[in-house]
Amino acid sequence: MIISEIFIHSISIYFPFSALGGCPFALINIKTTMKNIIVLSKLRFYAFHGVLSQEKSVGHIFVVTLRISCDFKKAMINDKVKDTVNYGEVYEIVKSEMDKRSKLMEHLACRILHRIFTNFSSVDSVFISIIKENPPINSDSDGCGVEIEMSRTDNDRLSSSVGLTY
Fold it and tell me: Which whole-number Å values give the CA distances from 41 to 12, 63, 66, 127, in the listed order?
């Protein structure tokens, strides 16, 4: 018999692993300190964001990475997509916002973040990175961009203070 062991705040709990259907959290209802992250890494889009007329007409490749903090422990146990953040739906949000032109990547990132928080109540915080490859600057670089880490509380405050209605 395989025995599983979980350490939580220096308390060790032992139970038969086979009785849990393979998941060590199935029979116990305890708080854990684990952090759950959904990752969408280096999504590539060809889009027309920018201030300069060349950026608006020629376009650039943009690379988007997201790290979404949410509680998906239930999905770890029951193997049901309804109990997590569906990264396919997140991708569709990002794609939809990438298709809408913006002058600034800061504005674009804020729109994406706001829609993720609006569509997924289980999301606690989101990190987003948007990089424009080969930006129109006189430099040899991989790209320029923005990174934002926003909590649900930050999103709610920003939304209410400036009236975000994307």
Answer: 35, 9, 6, 11
Q: If we measure between CA atoms, which residue out of 161, 77, 73, 159 comes closest to residue 116? A: 159
Q: Is 132 a catalytic residue?
A: yes
* pLDDT, tens digit, 9 for 90 and up, residues 86-127: 999 999 999 999 999 999 999 999 999 999 999 999 999 999
**Residues 115 and 126 reside in one and the same domain:** yes
**pTM of the model as a whole:** 0.79
pLDDT in tens, 6-34: 443 333 444 444 445 556 555 445 566 78
Q: Are residues 18 and 40 in the same domain?
A: no
Residue 150 lies in domain: 34-162
Measure the CA–CA gap between 63 and 44, rounded to whole angstroms.
5
